[in-house]
Structures are given as structure tokens and as C-alpha cells.
């Protein structure tokens, strides 16, 4: 019901989305059990997203039970954060939330979809970004930190970074850490646990999980095969 008037029944398929402004007096009766996630986004945050793209944003469309594969994928990627928050990179969460906000503003608002032709980072910005992302002692660096250091808005930085490297900042940092781990596994006598900490991973199991995903082998087996 909205403002005391019935709005009818609505069915939500798996991984569908509803979007509603909170200035309405809205109430719902849930007739069947289901799992759901709630994302509250202040209008000022969406305005900042639009401003980063050089536009102004109107109100989002009000939808109920809309199929949204993109948002479903972003939410599923965030689910492990709820079970292992201590092993989650803030840069990873920040990147997903930024993508979700941009998607909402484009699909349900009037923010144009970017054509992808924006230029990349300048040389000094690349040096600064690589310095910050490559520092294993700074695991909690976020997109705002990187953007500020490069003198850019967060949205512009994300687009320019991907135009430069072909991957997101989080993916670049992960690849960098795996490459450093490979070098230490091959050429040092450090234990896998010591290498994990030196490369910015939470612990040995974190390194093993990420390393295996990128190489198809665990760190210990990689070392044995390399030295055989």
C-alpha cells in the first residue's frame, strides 16, 4: 500500500529487484517466505555519482520485481563479505559498491551509459596509483584514497584506470600481489605463511585461495614444480 491505497500484488522472481523512494508512506504484506537484501542509497550519493560523470540525476524509476542480472551478480559477489568480513579487501567492496551505484543511476535513472572513450591516467597518476596499490603495508586503501591522490573524482578515476590497464584497481592489485608471491615462492626460502604476509594477504589460506584461482596450483605445489 502507498499512502493508504492498494497498489496490487507483485511477484518477485529470484534475483529480481525493487526500487522505491523513501518519501512515500509505503507498506507491504509478505505472503511467502524469501531471502532479500536491502540497500539504502541517499540521494546525495547518487548525485555525486552523476556529478562524477558530468551530469545531473533526476529521480530513479520506481520498479517492482524487475529482473536485473547485473545487480544480481554484484550482490552475489558481495555475499562472502558477510561470512568472512575479516578476510575482505575494502578496495574490493568499494569497487563493487561503486559499480552498483553507477548501474542504479544508469538503469533506473537518467544517467547516460558512458561510451568508454574517456582517456587514461597521466604518467604521474599511474606512478602514484601503482605505488599505493603495490604497497602490501596498505591493505585498506580505497577508491577515494586513490582518486584523491590522482586529483580525480572517484568515478573518473575508476574509468581512467580501467582504460589504462584494462582491469579494475582491485584486479590490478590482486595480480600484482600474486606476481610478487610467485617470485618469492620461486627464489626465496621464506615459508608460504611468511610470503603471504609480505605480499599483503591476510594469512596463508588467503594466499592459497587467491594464488590457486589465478594459477591453477597452490603455492606449495607451485614451489615443488618450479624447483623439480
In a few lines, what is going on in this structure?
This protein is mainly alpha-helical. Helix content is 53%, strand content 4%.
Written description of the protein model:
This protein is mainly alpha-helical and 228 residues long. The chain has two domains: 41-60 and 67-170, no CATH class; 172-227, Homeodomain-like (Arc Repressor Mutant, subunit A), CATH 1.10.10.60. It is 53% helix and 4% strand. The chain has ten helices and two strands. A two-stranded antiparallel ribbon has the order 1-2. The longest helix has 19 residues, at 169-187. The protein starts with 15 loop residues before the first strand and ends with a helix. 21% of the residues are buried. The model has no long low-confidence stretch (mean pLDDT 85).
Helix/strand-derived class? Answer: mainly alpha
Q: State mean pLDDT (0 to 100 scale).
A: 85
What pattern of helices and strands is seen along the backbone?
Answer: EHEHHHHHHHHH
Helix content: 40-55%
Tally the structural domains: 2
CA(first)-CA(last) distance: 69 Å
Oligomer: single chain
Count helical runs.
Answer: 10
- Percentage of residues in DSSP E strands: under 5%
User: What is the overall shape?
Assistant: globular
Number of strands: 2
Characterize the biggest β-sheet. 2 strands, antiparallel
The poorly predicted ranges are: none
* Rg: 21 Å
Strand order of the largest sheet: 1-2
